Amino acid sequence: MTSDLPVLLAAVSVLSALHMGFQARRVGWSRMKFKIVPPIVTGPPEFERTFRAHQNSVEFYAIFVVLLWISGIFFNEVVAALGGLVYIVGREMYFTGYISESKRRLPGFYLVSFVLLFLAVTAAIGIFQAFLDKYL
Amino acid sequence: MTSDLPVLLAAVSVLSALHMGFQARRVGWSRMKFKIVPPIVTGPPEFERTFRAHQNSVEFYAIFVVLLWISGIFFNEVVAALGGLVYIVGREMYFTGYISESKRRLPGFYLVSFVLLFLAVTAAIGIFQAFLDKYL
Amino acid sequence: MTSDLPVLLAAVSVLSALHMGFQARRVGWSRMKFKIVPPIVTGPPEFERTFRAHQNSVEFYAIFVVLLWISGIFFNEVVAALGGLVYIVGREMYFTGYISESKRRLPGFYLVSFVLLFLAVTAAIGIFQAFLDKYL
């Protein structure tokens, strides 16, 4: 029964969830390093960049999961899962880049944006085909 | 095989994901307009309203997706998908209203809250019926 | 047909979505109590703790939903759903604790972190088994 399940999408999703947890953890470590006690969210530039890097990942995480699964189920699971892996790499580039300097978040940001666009386009193609199959 | 897939839920989900991306983009444009470089998130009232409008959408996006799919699968796909379209319209009203003036976010907010409640109630009804089917 | 659907995961998801909505509502009530008009997000410590308590729930909500469903589908639905209930309890402990005093958020935070780790580990085990079934 489980042999029909989209195991690659699930694997990439769990990996991305762990990566999100790891980013939250690094915000916690940055709090300790600079002694910034919750609920305070302002402080030295490095802390604020770390905090915002995580927030940006949060802002896009649900969008990523939605597009990953719809692209993977309606278009192609392997292609979407590979896209998901590239997204995680882009998120890590974004996070580590942003912490060092604001501008260094950009390469990761472009990569992440490209993957989201790619997943959205492939999802739309897959939905269009499934729509024709189902209703016409 | 793809003819069994909830294609309307998928279509509304991708549309809502693109709308979320568009809102993030407008925060970026507002940053450029007022020259507010990340990680700064404070500035002129218009920028702060734009920033918070997007944040509010982010806060509710995963809730929306969860209720949309559960309502659509356990209650009725067409009804849930139409609810999802109204939600996106409400989010756009909220966003554009909020940018012009804080109080103008309210009509969109009420519409969005109504749709979420509607999806939650229909989801609960569908779950209750499925629970009776499966366990009793 | 509906008798095959993961009704327990759906029920816990809707419950958690309502709990998220309730937390957002309490931020709104805190705004009224301290007369803090949007888009302002700073104010007396109690308001800032309430605001941040909600934000933390938002940051983890999509991660929770992803792990809940993958653990429930690939490992065991009943176990994952019970984990989800404990997560909601932990979130409530976190929220009410945080509002009273920053340090009192910690018991709920540890419980919530433990559940997420548990769901991630069970999800990984389930994915590993499904991967062997499907590809080997």
Automatic annotation (TrEMBL), chains A, B, C:
Gene Ontology BP, a term: leukotriene biosynthetic process
Transmembrane segments: 60-88, 109-132
InterPro entries tied to this protein: 5_LipOase_AP, MAPEG, MAPEG-like_dom_sf, Membr-assoc_MAPEG
Family annotation (SUPFAM superfamilies): MAPEG domain-like (SSF161084)
Presence of the UniProt keyword Transmembrane helix in the record: yes
UniProt key word Transferase: yes
Pfam families: MAPEG
Broad class of enzyme this protein falls into: transferase
GO MF entry, a single one: glutathione transferase activity
PANTHER family cross-referenced by the UniProt entry: MICROSOMAL GLUTATHIONE S-TRANSFERASE, MICROSOMAL GLUTATHIONE S-TRANSFERASE 2
Full protein name: Microsomal glutathione S-transferase 2
Organism: Danio rerio (Zebrafish)
